[in-house]
Structure formats: structure tokens, C-alpha cells
Amino acid sequence: MKTIEKFLNSGLYIFLIFSITFISWSFYKETPPHVFNLYNMIGVFLLILINTFILSFYKNTLYTIPIIIGFQFIINQSNMTFDSVGELGFPIVAFIVLLSGPIIHLIRFKPKFKRGVFFLGFALIAGAYILSFIFAPFEISGIVVSLMGLIYLLGYIFYSITLKGNLNYLFKIMLFANITLTLQVFFYIYQGYLLHPELDIYYRLFQGWGRNLGWANINDMCFYIALTFPSYLYFIFKKPQTYLTWFLMLLPVTAVILSKSRGGVIGFAVVVIGVVLFFVLRGNKKHLTHGLIFLTVSVIVFWINRAIFEIWYEFFLDSLGENLNDFSSNRIQIYKDGWEVFKSHPIFGAGWLSIQTLYPGERMFMYHQTFIHALATMGLFGLAALFVHYFQIIKYFFRNVSFEKYLFIIGYIASQVHGLIDNVQFSVPYSVLIVLFLVIFETSEKKTSFELINNRYFLIE
User: Fold this and answer.
1) I need a labelling partner for 354 at 20 to 30 A (CA). Which of 108, 230, 276, 388 fits?
2) What is the pLDDT of residue 461?
3) Are 68 and 121 within one domain?
4) In sequence order, which residues have a C-beta less than 8 Å from that of residue 435 and are 6 or more positions away?
């Protein structure tokens, strides 16, 4: 078992999990009589099987984190709604089987309960989810989504008492997750490229395949890429002699540009600015030299393919519309609707399905803005709970700031900026990622700091 645990602690294992995720997700066409693709279902249950094995035999649940994160990005059914999830059956069965692992682990290893650093914020958010359901008109379809806050809280408690964190392991996960997400965008682009042979090559790259990505849409993809993008810096600073990580960074940059996501570009611009500032303020001579080489090569590559930016600018001009609401893809009106909903239910909100009443029949679950959504769905109580959660994160990450904390802060701020115009904070995959990232930071003992030597900063283990 020690040999297996050594493998589980390796980058090769993390690579294997995300390879299963990407390969399984890439089978997106339905395979009758199954609504889901059969190979996607096999991939999901394979991850669940590995997860259950680890939880059954190993005390440290750290090795399940790549699986749980991969699980967020493996579902490829593009037509799921609150009403259809129960009808499809498979997601519910998969989720129930997934829960068997933690139950076995708790029975076998009997970990002791303790309040973690971020417990209060998650507990208040869980309460806000439930209270919004209790005080809103009853809808049976709202039960599951109203329990999600409780699931996040239970997940946080479980991992905070069973996991021994390792920040190097975390950043390996973030790097492979970023690469996986980037490959999913390229797969999306490639499918659109195949569907439109009549167009010029650059226009074909912007077409996409006319469907969302199953677990999210193309806009959502961008803030997950932004959140995990600083992981490249981790390995650049840890292993400054390699050029591979530098040039891997070109892939997510290209993916975000070709996604045509205006909000994605805004959030990603924030993370790029943070990365550049980090290099300038903390990089040594070797880092800055490699950075200059990378920048030069990037400029040459993008200059040769500058038609991409010209097309992107055309798309941007076409999206302006006649007014700000058109330009925002109807978001301004959604914000106004959300504000009116809040005014009618100011304390605990109108519930998580309130937007379905405003836009019946549409695949719209959120108000496209973090604070408007909190107010409309969970009222002032929900907004206060969110602020407590933010306060705990700020207090933890800005106290005794380490190298790893710097990098997390860059990606987290970028994703939250994106959340000012899109569904971020309350998206299920994002919430799960934040729970897991925070637990690993909280339970990790070894952190890396900077020491000033000859007017330059160097990493000190």
C-alpha cells in the first residue's frame, strides 16, 4: 500500500486523473439509449471508483482532491436544467455513489471534529441558502440547490479534519487543471473549425461548435483558467532553469482570446497584470531574463497571427448594440430585475429559483453579478454571510503572506473581478474549488517565503 501511496503523491497520478477527465469529457455525442454519452458515464464512475478506494484505505484524503476537481469538469451533457437532472437519473446515481467514500472513511478512521479557520463563513452561507428556501414560496425543485450551501459546509468540515495539506501538491493540481480546461477550450474551437470549412482560417477559429461545454459554458471556462493560471508562476519560480512552463503559458492565453468571452478577457487581464507585477517585484535576474524571452516570442507569434485580434475587435464592435443593456448581453436588465426581487424580499431573499420566475423556460440560474445575486436570492442575510466569508479569506491570506498565498490571491482576485459581470462566486464548480483550495492551505505546514538578498528576492523553503 505504501507503493500505491507514493504513486498517489506524484505528479503522474494527478496527470492520470485529469487525462481521464479530458478524454471522458471529449465524448459529447449521445449514445442511445443513454442520454449521456456512455464513455462519459464510464469516466465518471471510474473517478468515483478510484475516489472510494482511496477514502477506504488511506487516512490522508489529499489524494482525492484531483478526483473531486476533475469531477467538476467531466460532465458533458449540455442540456441539463434543474428539471432535467432528476429525469436523467445518472447524475443523481453518480452523486449518491460518490458519497459512499466519505461515509466509509469516517467509519474506518473516526476523525475528530474541529472548527476550521473558514468554518463561520461557510456555515453562514449554508444557513443563507436554507433560509432563502424556507421563506420563499415552496418549490420542490428548489430543495437540491438550496442544500448546496450545506454540502459545501459538510465538504469543508470533512476535508478539514481528514486532510493533511501539501501546497506543492496543490499547485500541481492547479497546473494540470488549467491545462485540462485549456484543452477543453481548444477542443471546442477545433469542433467549430471542422463545422465551418467555408470560412477563412481565422474566422473558423472563432466559431465554436454551437453548444456549451456540458458542465458550463465557454464564458465560465475563462474564470477557472484565470483562477488556476498563477500555478505556472509557482513552477517557474521553483524551477527557473526550465523553459517549458513558460511556453505552456501561451496555451491558456490563446484559449481565452479565441473563446470570444469579453468578461473572460477582463478577468484574465487582471490575472495577467498580477502575474507581471509579481515578476517585476519578486523576480530575480534569471526570472526577468526568461520573462523577456517569453514576451518577445509571444509578441512575434501574436504579430504573425494579428488577424485574430482584428477579428476579435470586429466582434467587439458588433457586440456594442444600441445601448448598454445590449452591450452587456441583457445583464443590465437582469441586474434591475434582481434589485427589484431583493426589494420585495430584503431579509432572506426570494430563493434560488426566483430568476426562473422572471425568465421561464430559459437556461438561466443566476443574476450574473455576485452581489446582486446574493441580495436577490438570499437577501441581506446572504450578503452579510458572503462578507464574513470574504473577511476570513482576507484575514488568512494577508497575514504572514507566503509565496503560495501571493499566487492564490492573484487568481482569486481575478476570478472575483469576473464575478462582477458573470456567474462566479455561486457556481458549483467554483464553490467546490474554493472549499478545497482553502482546506489545503489551512492544513499545510510547509510554506515558502521570500528573503531579500542583494536587493532581489529569493525563495526560502
Assistant:
1) 388
2) 56
3) no
4) 122, 152, 155, 156, 159
